[in-house]
Amino acid sequence: MIFTKKQFQSQTSVFGRRKNPLILKVDALLDSYHNSGAHNTSAAEATLLALLTAVNTWLEAKSEKIHKGASGRRSGVIQLKAQVEAGLHKLKPITRKERKITLPGMCAKRTRFDNVNTDRKASPIREMDIYQGATRHLTIREAIWPSALTSGPWSERRKGTIAIQQIDAAEGPRKNMPDSHPFAATAIDVASRAIIQARKMLPLGAFNNRHVQSRPPSWTQHPAWQNALNEAVASGLVLETGNRDPEDYVAWLAAFATATRTTGGGVCTYFASLTCGILTTIAPPGSDILLVYSRADHQFCVLSVNGSPWYTVDPWTLNSYVLRWERSYFGPGSQPKGGIDNYFKIRVHEPIHTPYGISYTSTDIRSHLARASKSLGPQKTDDMAHNFGHCCNAPRLELCGRSGKYPIDGRLPVQTYKDWG
After folding, report:
1. How far apart are CA 204 and CA 63, in angstroms?
2. Which of 83, 226, 253, 330 falls between 20 and 30 A from 271, CA-CA?
3. What is the pLDDT of residues 336-345, one digit of tens each?
């Protein structure tokens, strides 16, 4: 049941005032939905999508989180968001179809998700198509790795990396075009928007990338405790809700993203999952997203639109540039920290309104958050075992201490060390 205009007003009127244009827009859309759209499937879908956009825009503008109470309207808006998403699912349920494929020189990586560098087993690669109604929105392929490295001591296998030539063979080479080309310019714009959206959700910062001189006031003083909380919430969502399949790689990506958004911070694995999920909702048709596992023990995303060059999408570094992947510090082989251990691949056929096409209920999220907090005990002022302290994702600037004032390819960083939450 979706709030009527009157019910929503009763939940979100602050001291009797209603002046926020987004809230007034939601009022009007609710009126339209209940007066004419609810009984017409196409009209209902259009109105609900407009409602979801307005609600998400308000939440982003306010930098609201499920666990924060910074606005008297927050609870009512989040309730409405859950109702709208449920209504969309009812109109056009999201379904997932699996199939197995082979790629040149590649096989699947079976991963214990509590430790991404162990338990690799060779097997066919699985792809999952995400449909809403009859529309295919996403094709998500599980992580892959070179089949030549399936045997021998782990210490030797760990040295192997995926070459850019293998990515070109599997995904098609990227087109040679300037940044001003419409496809490249779109990729840069979408990557920038994704970084900004992610940073707004992350007031607690990167738990394992913290310069002492540049810690914003919002950053947590309990990064190791908070990281354990993220892991517990994500594990609970996958293993105790939904289909409870520990091999469901898409459910893990969605759970990592949900845990990060809920707690407001994370390590690079969680940042990358959150960013990748955002990209599935805003990248145009024909976009390719790679969630990359770098041999530098770092995870991030790259984006290509209609065959454009790959561009980095990485809110984890303190100053986040959108760069051509080969020009970044974590490039595909030539830069100081280059080399690819692995990657997930997502093809966007149509952007989807829920990241990855998977949503966990606010009740489940609160339950796992409360249970994990209780099991971990009081928060402790502690640091992660390894604090990377990466200043930038640009070569030559890395660890230089610059404050995001140096342009690369004519562009300043999309977000600096000050931009969190």
Report:
1. 12
2. 83
3. 566 788 899 9
Task: Out of 37, 71, 91, pick the residue that ends a domain.
Answer: 91
* Contact status, residue 295 vs residue 340, Cβ threshold 8 Å: yes
* Sequence-ordered alpha helix ranges (H) in 33-73: 41-62
Query: What is this structure's pTM?
Result: 0.85
Specify the pLDDT at position 117. Answer: 40
What is the domain range of residue 23? 5-91
Residue 193 sits in the same domain as residue 295: yes
Integer Cα distance of 167 and 103 in angstroms: 10
How far is it between the farthest Cα atoms of the chain?
A: 70
What confidence tens digit (pLDDT) does each residue in 125-144 have?
Answer: 999 999 988 899 999 999 88
Give the whole-angstrom CA distance, residue 402 versus residue 408: 13
Number of C-beta neighbours around residue 79 at 10 A:
17
Distance CA 111, CA 100 (A): 17
Tokens of 331: 């490039």
pLDDT in tens, 213-250: 566 777 888 888 898 999 999 989 988 876 677 788 99
Residue 119 has pLDDT above 60, yes or no: no
* Model confidence at 112: pLDDT above 70: no
**Domain check: are 123 and 66 in the same one?**
no
Q: Are residues 75 and 101 in the same domain?
A: no
Nearest to 289 by CA among 274, 37, 297, 298: 274
Closest CA to 217 of 375, 40, 418, 379: 418
Q: Specify whether 260 is located in the same domain as 401.
A: yes
